[in-house]
Amino acid sequence: MKLTDDLALEVSGLRKTYGSVVAVDDVSFAIxxxxxxxxxxxxxxxxxTIAKIILGLESAAAGQVRACxxxxxxxxxxxxxxxxxxxxxxxxxxxxxxxxxxxQTIGSMLEAVVRLHHRDLIAGERRQRVMxxxxxxxxxxxxxxxxxxxxSGGQRQRAAIARALAAEPEVIxxxxxVAALDVSIQAQVLNLxxxxxxxxxxxxxxxxxxxxxxxxxxxTAVVMCQGQLVESGxxxxxxxxxxxxxxxxxxxxxxxxxxxxxVSATPSILDEGGAS
Length: 276
Ligand SMILES: Nc1ncnc2c1ncn2[C@@H]1O[C@H](COP(=O)(O)OP(=O)(O)OP(=O)(O)O)[C@@H](O)[C@H]1O
Known about the structure:
alpha/beta; ATP binding; 4-stranded antiparallel β-sheet; binds adenosine-5'-triphosphate; ATP hydrolysis activity; ABC transporter ATP-binding protein; 24% strand; 6-stranded mixed β-sheet; ATP-binding; Rossmann fold; transport; single chain
């Protein structure tokens, strides 16, 4: 794969094993600056492992990860390097309950991140930045004093998005970020994410098993099956005209507004007896 500077994120030949399990097997994809790519696949296909390697939470056995043209495959050696990498890629997890510190108010959490990444700002400017971040995600000044448990699930996820934005990252990894929310709240947060992408030109890597979410938020998609990338293309191509049998089964197994039942209930869409 050609590595170029107008790409926000590039993953090439990535491999990760856990003992005898090959979690990620020679996976390559790229996202242009401001683009949004959906990483699709059923549970255990290797999606979160890829996210962890991109974030530096796991090391790869082979392959390369680059963000904004800079290699980040090897562990960061200095604090400055870790901070710079954090400004390149941030993550929003599925469950803000466990990803937010339960003892820290939303305001102090955001101010700490602003302070870490914008050391030149004075106190008043930092406070203003926190207000701006809250406003960007549809929260209010009163939420600065709130603890995570005093907020609704949707508000907590908005706070987690604000925390990611506080670093002004080039790329945000959204790892099942709306999966735990009620459907109506999920729609609001999806709209917020779409608006933010448009306003900030931020790049998304969206990890989801929910094809409707992938359709709404991404313009390209890759499909993972048992650690391998089996299909890639524009989101419309992949979802409307899937070429690989796995993607076809994945699509057929997802109930949606226009869902037609084509497969019987099965623990895995890979079970031969499961699809009919
Ligand atoms: N820390 C670990 N130790 C051992 N095996 C692991 C570890 N993390 C992941 N795996 C294995 O690697 C494979 C890929 O897991 P991964 O969590 O990346 O999949 P996923 O597609 O993100 O699934 P899910 O949507 O359920 O999170 C699975 O077989 C999983 O059991």
